[in-house]
Amino acid sequence: MELLLKILFYLSGFIIVWAMIGYPVSLRLIGKLYKNRKLMKNYSHQPTVTLMIVAHNEQKVILDKLNNILELDYPEDKIEFLISSDNSTDNTNQIVKSFIESHKEKNIILYEVNARKGKTNAQNEAHKKVKTEYLVMTDANSIMKKDAIKELMAAFTSRKIAYVTGKLSIVNNEVNDVSSSEASYWDSDLAIRELEGRIQTITAGNGAIYACRTSDYYDFNPIQCHDSAMPPFYALNGKRAICNHDAIAYEKAGEVIEDEFGRKVRMNRIILNHILPDLRILNIFKYKWFSYFYFGHRTCRYLLWCSHLIVFLTNALLIPSSTFFLVTFGGQILFYLLALTKAVTKTNNKLSTLIYYYCVTILAQWVGVYKILTGKSKPFWEKAESTR
After folding, report:
1. In the sheet where 143-144 sits, what is the strand order?
2. What span, in angstroms and rounded, lies between the C-alpha atoms of 206 and 168?
3. In angstroms, rounded to a whole number, what is the distance separating the alpha carbons of residues 97 and 304?
4. pTM, whole model, 2 decimals?
5. In Å, what is the CA distance from 380 to each residue of 6, 86, 162, 376?
6. What is the predicted pLDDT for the residue at 254?
7. Is 209 left (phi over 0), alpha (psi -120 to 50) or beta?
8. Continuous H helices in 200-277
9. pLDDT in tens, 275-284
10. Which residues, in sequence order, are CB contacts of 102 under 8 Å at separation 6+?
């Protein structure tokens, strides 16, 4: 029994350490082997493009978004705009229709989804209307840099590249400790993605700004989201998903922990499926670095919720066996006490803030798992108001 407890303790501990420290460090070392491999760009590649925006009750930000897309630096005769309204019940549709009426010279279309089934379904339905060579997708609350589409298209330098994601830049990172913690996490993750894409292929994108060939678009199950589903899908089909961080979109992070927690719960709405979405990922001989990337960047992170519980419980049971386990258990208690202290006192301490934010992330995974097991996981969600 003691041997089993130790195996579970060390295995779960490895998953936690590898996900948060081991994998990022190893990737930086691997990246040095590929330091001469740079992102290739071809700025003469300017195909026809449809820019799709999915919106559900975005009356607060949709006008700013519409004005933003008209300022994009891309040939007017090669770009179309498609707003897919996911059964909006506020003034979103009216604002878009009025904007279209006052900009008749622009190719802007409003597609109204009859039944709300979430962002992915709205994209699937609207995609049927797309006639251009490429499809760029962006969020209603993301403001794109003028050259963003040129940058995305410039990165499609071969048929093997099926997906290009840009860089989401958080604009309110200094507002408070919530947005600052999210910005810090996001910056570290962007560095990992840049290395993955340069070496072979990324494991996830972001919904603020990304593109694919229209012919490569796939109708995913509405419960899935493109961020986590598209890159693995293309990788397993022998293509590449990469990032071009010169294609930039600006967005606010949640400024209250409830918003950020809710967002993370929604991100984990199918976390159990993401741990190993396809057994082919294990074929390292065929998929090479992608298998390694997915295990370190995705599988281990998606197992943090249960790994922390297993480490805690096995550690408690192993205390009588050695002083080492007494010390590690004490360390865990201190770790969680620091997070609890931050939650109660709202103290502005960098270490306790990071620990607290990390614990909130793990708790969000648990809530995501609970919703899956109870059938409460949905393909849509209410937006975080502090990001608007």
Report:
1. 108-113, 79-86, 49-55, 134-139, 209-213, 161-170, 240-251, 143-144
2. 7
3. 45
4. 0.90
5. 41, 10, 26, 11
6. 65
7. beta
8. 226-236, 257-267, 271-274
9. 999 999 999 9
10. none
Among 152, 124, 125, which residue's Cα sits nearest to residue 43?
152
Amino acid at 205: G
In which residue are the tokens 């709405």 written?
269
- The three-point CA angle 192-197-198 to 5° equals 100
Q: Give the 3-state secondary structure of residue 244.
A: strand
Partnered with residue 61 across adjacent β-strands are none
User: 165 - beta bridge partners?
Assistant: 210, 243
Q: Which two tokens stand for residue 291?
A: 């298998």
Query: Locate tokens 């292929």: which residue?
Result: 201
Q: How far apart are the first and last CA of the chain?
A: 53
Q: How far apart, in whole angstroms, are the C-alpha atoms of residue 333 and residue 336?
A: 5
pLDDT of residue 256: 67
Look up residue 3 and give its amino acid.
L
Least Cα distance to 190 among 170, 165, 167, 173 occurs for 167
Task: Show the low-confidence residues of the chain (pLDDT under 70).
Answer: 173-179, 254-256, 382-388
pLDDT of residue 209: 96
Cα-to-chain-centroid distance, residue 184? 15
Task: Return d(Cα 67, Cα 160) in angstroms, integer.
Answer: 34
* CA proximity to 107, closest of 73, 139, 70: 70
Which residue, among 213, 269, 220, 272, has the nearest Cα to 241 in the 3D structure? Answer: 213
**Residue pair 342/353 in contact by the 8 Å Cβ criterion:** yes
The token pair that represents 256 in the structure block: 């209250």
Question: Within 10 Å of residue 183's Cβ, how many Cβ atoms?
Answer: 18
Say how many residues make up the chain: 388
